[in-house]
Design a protein that fits this description.
heterodimer; A: 269 residues; MetI-like fold; 74% helix; globular; B: 369 residues; OB fold (Dihydrolipoamide Acetyltransferase, E2P); 2 domains; five-stranded antiparallel sheet
Chain lengths: 269, 369
């Protein structure tokens, strides 16, 4: 009996989570005229692919998508590199001021993001990176959360394994690359997903930095549709659906490692 | 292959703890040296300094005449087998064995041939494609050995490589490692806390205690001529009895008072010590191995100790007898099982002066003859 109740509650919760997605999918195939007539799903014969066609014909949607892929890809790769390297150093080396460094890093995580917008903008401005993809990538290169995630995971890599590698002829970077990273695969998967979602969905910062429409990322491009095309909700929903897909695909690809990685960071070290 | 020498090496940790005190030790080319001692005695630290995994606080470490104190481990061309084996879990057995060669950037064909050669030698061929997680302890141990052997290093370092194996496998691997070392002729430094391993494997054995080298000698010499009470008590199983005693003439010759009883010593100058030396007066302690306790019928009456049996352990043909001497001192004797004894029995045991060890108050052995 208890089981039944639990399952019922889970089903209700799952439905609640799925409704917006279902709505999104339905809306992506609705004609603009039907938007306020049929709140959810119109009759099948009224469904249309016009939203998708207009997405690609009337605006540079493909361009937005490529921009997003470029920015998110570059950011994830750089973040992965620097976060794992930083986490490795914090987990496996003793150096003067290590505790202080970690304290400062932790403190930066407590500062709310919007507070940093103005100084960060100034910094990027002086670096001459306004209205460029580098202006999005550079501030995202280092991720304190990621460093702690990797540190926590790498604490559980036995020191003897590192020493064995040292004796087997590795320099310190080769130890990181050939031994520690392959062993940390689950956390790498989890981190990539988290980092990708963060960058892919990022709205506020790109909105501030980017000015030319040919450099827009997906969220900015989609947002732009409201004014310019008199709120073409159908196209916007179709665009949103396409924007969500890469995240979903990535999640399914990395699902196993993602879940293993999240729990790993929690219980070890 | 190369000779290794520690010259006045100290290791002091940042917290002030001195793990190794002024170590002077030379290891000959091709020698199998075992470092043995209780945990925390500095033997592993010494090995790790040799590997380059610990810095040397002062003194010199020489490999083949070259000072290597500041050389990165990978520049020392040594191979090491760890207690935990430290295999790379994401690599197959083959990948593990090949790894040091790949790091040395050897041609792929040579890497493969050499790895296969070593795998064949250690009977690992059927396991080459497996990951370490699927191997038994003994197999992992072999892979760790293979990874060390494949490199043709100047020296093998082994840090308690057998301590994670079960007793039977340990005995088997002990013999295999010793045979392998003889075959390759590579200088080997082997750390263990097990004196049986030390005695059976090493050409020479270095005994450590509290960061100080106590004695380095052949197993035979360590057993027969320990320099102090620590080495005497550590080498040999079961341990040597160490009993307070003092020199007093008995029956017209030199004698000992042990547990309130007189033992005549030197009528025939039969001990292994020079009792005429001045320091003989300073004897404070005797050492007697349990197996050297003899039948009282075999010795004169003034060479017997008396006591009450506290406990006996039957070992098959022999028995361990725990005896409380007259003043309460405990003496362990290894006697023939024929002698039926039970707790509470009052018995006598014989002391053969030729088998006695004599130590001074500071623990040093009297000069051997």
């Amino acid at each position: 009996m208890r089981r039944v109740v639990v399952y019922m509650l889970l089903v209700i919760f799952a439905m609640l989570c799925l409704v917006p997605i279902a709505w999104l999918v339905a809306s992506a195939f609705k004609a603009n005229a039907d938007f306020h007539v049929y709140p959810v799903v119109p009759p099948v014969e009224r469904l249309t692919l016009a939203n998708f066609t207009s997405l690609f014909t009337q605006m540079p949607f493909l361009r937005f998508m490529m921009n997003s892929f470029f920015v998110a890809g570059a950011t994830v790769i750089l973040q992965l590199f620097f976060s794992s390297l930083g986490g490795f150093a914090l987990a496996k080396y003793d150096f003067a001021g290590k505790k202080a460094v970690m304290g400062v890093m932790l403190a930066t995580m407590m500062i709310p993001g919007p507070v940093l917008l103005a100084p960060m903008y100034e910094l990027i401005y002086h670096m001459g990176l306004i209205d460029s993809h580098l202006g999005l990538i550079v501030p995202g290169m280092v991720n304190v959360f990621g460093m702690f995630l990797f540190r926590q995971s790498m604490l559980s890599v036995p020191d003897e394994m590192l020493q064995a590698a040292r004796i087997d002829g590795c320099n310190e970077f080769q130890i990181f690359w050939h031994v520690v990273m392959p062993v940390s695969r689950p956390i790498v998967g989890a981190f990539c997903l988290i980092a990708f979602m963060g960058t892919w969905n990022s709205f506020l910062w790109p909105q501030i930095i980017l000015q030319s429409s040919d450099r827009f990322t997906l969220p900015i491009g989609l947002n732009q549709m409201i004014g310019v095309y008199e709120a073409d909700y159908g196209a916007m929903m179709a665009g949103t659906l396409l924007a969500v897909l890469p995240v979903v695909v990535l999640f399914f690809l990395l699902q196993k490692e993602f879940i293993a990685g999240l729990t790993k960071g929690a219980v070890k070290g | 292959m190369a000779e290794i020498a520690f010259r006045g090496v100290n290791k002091i940790y940042p917290n002030g703890f001195q793990a190794v005190h002024r170590l002077d030790l030379s290891i000959a080319d091709g020698e199998f040296l075992v470092m043995v001692g209780p945990s925390g005695c500095g033997k592993s630290t010494t090995l790790r300094m040799l590997a380059g995994l610990e810095t040397i606080s002062s003194g010199d470490l020489l490999i083949a005449g070259q000072r290597v104190n500041d050389l990165h481990p990978r520049a020392r061309n040594i191979a090491m087998v760890f207690q935990s084996y430290a295999l790379y879990p994401h690599k197959t057995v083959q990948g593990n064995i090949e790894f040091p060669l790949r790091m040395a950037k050897l041609p792929a064909a040579e890497v493969k041939t050499r790895a296969l050669e070593v795998a064949r030698m250690l009977e690992l061929e059927p396991l080459l494609q497996r990951k370490p997680g699927l191997l038994s302890g003994g197999q992992r141990q072999r892979v760790a050995m293979a990874r060390a052997l494949v490199r043709d290093p100047v020296a093998f370092l082994m840090d308690e490589p057998l301590s994670n194996l079960d007793a039977k496998l340990r005995v088997q691997m002990r013999a295999e490692i010793a045979a392998l070392q003889r075959r390759t002729g590579t200088t080997t430094v082997y750390v263990t806390h097990d004196q049986v391993e030390a005695m059976t494997m090493g050409d020479r054995v270095a005994v450590f205690k509290d960061g100080r080298l106590q004695q380095v000698d052949t197993p035979q010499q360590l057993f027969e001529r320990p320099v102090n009470t620590f080495v005497a008590g550590f080498i040999g199983s079961p341990s040597m009895n160490l009993i307070a005693a003092r020199m007093e003439p008995a029956g017209g010759g030199p004698g000992l008072t042990v547990a309130g009883e007189r033992i005549a010593l030197g009528r025939e100058r039969e001990t292994r010590f020079d009792l005429t030396a001045d320091e003989a007066e300073g004897v404070a302690c005797i050492g007697l191995r349990p197996e050297d306790v003899v039948d009282p019928q075999l010795v004169e009456e003034d060479r017997r100790l008396h006591g009450r049996v506290a406990l006996t352990e039957l070992l098959g043909r022999e028995q361990m007898v725990y005896l409380d001497l007259r003043d309460g001192t405990r003496l362990v004797a290894r006697l023939h099982a024929d002698r039926r004894l039970k707790a509470g029995d009052e018995i006598a045991v014989g002391i053969d002066p030729a088998r006695l060890y004599l130590f001074q108050a500071d623990g040093r052995a009297l000069a051997y003859r």
